[in-house]
Amino acid sequence: MRRRLFGSVRARATLGATLVVAVALLAAGAAVLLALRSNLTDQASSEAESSARKVAVSIATGTAPAALELPDGNDTPVQVVDGAGRLLAASEDLERISGTGSSAVKPVSPPVDDDGGDDGGGSDRHGGKGGDDDSYAYGEIADDAEGGEGSATVDGETRDHRFASLEVKNTRQGDLTVYAGASLSAEQSAVGTALTVMLIGFPVLLGVVGAVTWLMTRRALRPVEDIRSEMSAITASQDLARRVPEPATHDEVARLARTTNETLAALETSVERQRRFVADASHELRSPIASLRTQLEVGAAHPELLDVDGAVVDTVRLQELASGLLLLARLDAGERPGEARVDLAALAGEELSQRPAGRVAVRTHLEPVEVAGSRSQLARVVGNLLDNAQRHARSGVDIAVRPEGPWAVVEVADDGAGVPETERERIFERFVRLDDARARDDGGAGLGLAIARDVAVRHGGALTVRSSPAGGALFALRLPVAPVT
After folding, report:
1. Which CATH number fits domain 252-332: 1.10.287, 1.10.10, 3.40.1000, 1.10.357?
2. Rounded to an integer, what distance in angstroms lies between the CA atom of residue 316 and that of residue 139?
């Protein structure tokens, strides 16, 4: 069942589309979450730096750490630490803190005063006495703040924060560092909400994508199933006259249906041709066999009445017919013509030399030209063309062999009645004989020209017929010239 399910194109398409969308959603979701978190973290960093800089400005302008007005510790915890790491000021209700330079939450007691009474002897860092000299009343704030993350517990509530640390130098209390935090609760809440939405929405979206893909694929493949069903019915009934339904669309499925119908039409034609071939062959074989049997039976009963010459003629006719049928069977089976080099002029000369003197003269014009192929098959073509011309000629036959560019041309012409233009393709069909030819037939079965054309095509050439200058028929055989070695 599982193999059958995932062997379906529809199931594989649905699974593939769902996986692609899932990967895309995961990548997009991760990117959104990272961008959201980064944006909110940067925003918290800016808020923390802004708070730190406000406190630093107050210190730099002479406000003592103990007198600073610090923001609410729940959202913005603040520490002011001196160079020795002592906590000079902190947000109210600060109970615990991490991620800053000091874990202290309570300022030193007593606090450091403006006169420097607690920093060692009452002299300032520059060796002066007391704090009446206004030249040292202002500190220097660093240009850049450093960042970090930590947590703070204020009034029993613990939150994660983004901290900014900013140095203030040359104050009356020495070099100080201000730590200010900005709560990450908004960032965590937004990221959590987005993650929750994604965890709920992504499966729903994937379900919708899978369902839509399943339905669309089913609709798209319905014509394919119709084609498969009809082909199965055709196979079961062996009725090649049936055709598969063709969709009214112009997509690949419609082209598949049209190609399938074209294949069925070609197959029907081939089968019908094969049936006719078998029927015609049976008919053609029946006549000489019946005649030969009759003569042999008469000869067996009355030896003095045995027609030996007639029996020989029927035997030769039967032999030639069987030879032609065997050659056609080999050609239909796809027998390769071979690669032997054959001189058509010499081949035509041999065919003429082996023929007894006929009732019509044969005039020749032979130029040497070589082709590649089967010598026996090409000899059969030339012989068939000569037989056909001598059978229909009144007084003479002309045969010419010559090279013509990349082609070797063999032309056989007679001065007979010719072939009507409407019949010039039909005479190359198997067992086809025109009425006039059938009346004059001396034993031909209508296979000679069919064999000649099949051999020509399988050698890469062509065989055509047109009117000859003498008014009869002119058969032109064109074959590719053999490549130079």
Report:
1. 1.10.287
2. 130
**What pLDDT digit, counting tens, does each position of 25-64 carry?**
899 989 998 998 889 888 888 988 898 899 989 888 888 8
Burial (0-12, 13-18, 19+ Cβ within 10 Å), 392 = buried
Contact 390, 399 (CB under 8 A): no
Sorting pLDDT into bands at 50, 70 and 90, what band is 445?
A: low
Tell me what the pLDDT averaged over the chain comes to. Answer: 82
Half-sphere CA count of 84, side-chain side, radius 13 A: 9
pLDDT in tens, 304-330: 777 777 777 778 777 877 777 787 777
What does the pLDDT read at residue 94?
86
Mean pLDDT, to the nearest integer, of 117-143? Answer: 49
Distance CA 209, CA 123 (A): 77
8 burial level (CB within 10 Å; 0-12, 13-18, 19+)? middle
Rounded Cα distance, 61 and 255, in Å:
86
Which class would CATH give 340-480? alpha beta
Q: Taking the mean position of all CA atoms in its chain, how far away is CA 429?
A: 42
Q: Which two tokens stand for residue 345?
A: 């002029």
